[in-house]
Amino acid sequence: MDIWDTALNVILTALVSMTPVLELRVAIPFGVANDLGLWPSIIISIIGNLIPVPFIILFIRQIFAFMRKLSPKLDKLVTKLEQRAEKKSAVVQKCAFWGLFLLVAIPLPGTGAWTGALVAAMLDMRLKRAFPSIALGVTAAAIIVTFITYGADKLLF
Does any domain span residue 155? Predict the structure, then answer.
């Protein structure tokens, strides 16, 4: 594999990890399948998964307000997303840092960095308080995904 193929695979792995729903649950196996190696795939996936988080926390309310004005269909979508975030926020409200961490760390559909950032934004959590919790959760999710997908022997040796 030449440098251009490797660069393309790095970019694609990062983009997959930035995608809602897929996130690093898909990005880590994607990177490994495209010959990046396990550790580079993990690191690229963690970084890529964290890139959208500050933007979501800082700007999602303004984006939602704009979407609501554009069309009734987008208004329904925004309402649905807000309701989803509200359902997930109960865990976070009990113990903010660790609740947000748990929400992000469990690598199941409906959890992850995007949902965590959305919940943090809906709860008016400040970026400097929410980001470390989400970053720790993303790292934990990467470890869990790697253990489930490749086993402890690949991660440790």
Answer: no
* Per-position DSSP letters for 124-140, written without gaps between them: T--HHHHHHHHHHHHHH
Token code pair at residue 112:
């992850």
- Alpha-carbon distance of 33 to 116, in angstroms, equals 27
Q: Tens digit of pLDDT for each residue in 127-157?
A: 999 999 999 999 999 999 999 888 766 666 5
Look at residue 153 and tell me if it is in a domain: no
Query: How many domains, in total, are found in the chain?
Result: 2
72-110 core/surface letters (b: 16 or more CB in 10 A; e: else): eeeeeebeebbeebeebbebbeeebeebbbbbbbebeee
Closest among 55, 123, 137 to 89, alpha carbons compared:
123
Task: Please count the other Cβ atoms lying within 10 Å of the Cβ belonging to residue 49.
Answer: 31
